[in-house]
Amino acid sequence: MKLPPFDYAAPETLGEAVALLAAHPGEAKPIAGGQSLVPVLAFRLAAPTLLVDLRKLDELRDITITDAGVALGAMVRWRDILNEPRLRQAHPLLVAAVEHIGHYQIRNRGTVGGSLAHADPAAELPGIAVSCEAQIVALGSAGKRVIGAGDFFHAALTTALRPDEIVTEIRFPAWPRQRRYGFREFARRRGDFALAAAAVSFDEVERKYRDVRIGAIGVADRPIRLTAAERALEGRAIDETIASNCAAAAAGEVDPADDIHARGAYRKTLIGVMVERALRDAMARAIV
Ligand SMILES: Cc1cc2nc3c(=O)[nH]c(=O)nc-3n(C[C@H](O)[C@H](O)[C@H](O)COP(=O)(O)OP(=O)(O)OC[C@H]3O[C@@H](n4cnc5c(N)ncnc54)[C@H](O)[C@@H]3O)c2cc1C
Q: Potential cystine with 212: which of 189, 195, 202, 276 (Cβ 3.0-4.6 Å)?
């Protein structure tokens, strides 16, 4: 399918890129890897008159690991994350989730900023951002904003970003040494978007679950935290038998819609299974 006509610019600086978006309010769109935007244009879901290519903005390609946590520039690609061995220690849950994204070709082009701005409810990074309470940094003509991931995703393909704002980075809080994690995803074929996925983490403190976070992907119009499932664990003694209660709580608090990929009832059952498996993985890691 042919794309609608558009003008094209590849600014040399972030400031120029923001100025271009601001000069064409609501009519210009950034393009990063193009993996989601190009299909969107082909299906006429959007018809911007100007594409602002971010490919020359090398300042958005940094992966920074400090005591405060991990920061990923918006133009960091999935491949860059998987090729950075320090991230496996600094944020193993992030790496575990990115391993499920697409195929070789997609990982070579798809970016962090593009995934966040596109806001597919079945995408891995937005789910990890919400479950880990990451912060998303955006720059627009009014200046810089730092938006909590929980406030960033408003609905499918809809975020808190203003039309002249560019995502510049995402910041994850530091990963404590005592944190245990599991990530489970079910997709029809390896590399497809998730039908449902669960990101579970907790800190093991005196053999109890503390700071439990359970994120769900693919079961609502945005990535969500499963707070009833979190409460089923928080403060209790770490114990295998609790996993099925937690899974039941998880399934009980979602109400996914039917769509062309799966019935809502199927996804509801599936998220319980994913949460239970991810939790068991996390507990198995705790024993090691
Ligand atoms: C076959 C296939 C399989 C895939 N499988 C998966 C999968 O399993 N999991 C998954 O998560 N994703 C998957 N993807 C999507 C892929 O990861 C995309 O790369 C990603 O969703 C968007 O990143 P991008 O850099 O390509 O963004 P683009 O397509 O360039 O842009 C997407 C949207 O974000 C906006 N945008 C881009 N960068 C910025 C920025 N810095 N600031 C503000 N707005 C910006 C654009 O204007 C556009 O609206 C798949 C894609 C394909 C084609």
A: 202
